[in-house]
Amino acid sequence: MALPSKQISFIEDCYELYEQKMFRVALAVLHDETLAEDAVQDAFLQLIKHRVYFAKADSDDCKRYIITVIRNASINIYNKRKNEDKVVSFTENLEAVCESSAIAPDENIEAENDFEPLMNTLPEKYYDVVYCLAVKDYSIRETARRLGITEANVRKRYERAKKMMRQNLGET
Fold first, then answer.
1. Domains along the sequence of the chain with CATH
2. Per-residue pLDDT of the chain (172 residues; tens, 9 = 90+)
3. What is the rounded CA–CA span in Å between residue 46 and residue 40?
4. Burial class of residue 156 (count of CB atoms within 10 Å of its CB; 0-12, 13-18, 19+)
5. What does the alpha-carbon distance between residue 68 and residue 49 come to, in Å, rounded to a whole number?
């Protein structure tokens, strides 16, 4: 379905009026120019997808709506990045635990076998989370889905499992 010319004109007007303002809002949330540009693009795609139209692009209602859309797009990107960073952090922390127990993280099969006694000290619910995240390399979302628990629960169990494994290694 093609957009009516009124909506096309409206989106063009919004771009001319608000693109830089939207970029500044996104940059304030994301602190990264590339991500801010992505947020602006996502916001305009949402405006197009939802066929947003105001009689005047420079009206206060339109401005408030567009600021809300860009803020939400920026927050969505921020949350997505934060979750990706947790997965990266998880991997780095796991490698640190492996290194401190003299396990080479590059040797995946051997590391899995050497890491198994340490994981076996964990209660089953923590073992399952560590196994999915560390051995099977599932994402937090996939782990939650497979175990039938929430993503927040996966993160908390993993945090507790790391603490238990550090204590079992004699670390604090």
1. 5-81 (1.10.1740), 101-168 (1.10.10.10)
2. 577 888 899 999 999 999 999 999 999 999 999 999 999 999 999 999 999 999 999 999 999 999 999 999 999 988 888 766 555 555 555 555 555 444 344 444 444 455 677 778 888 888 888 888 888 888 889 999 999 999 889 999 988 988 888 887 775 4
3. 10
4. middle
5. 16
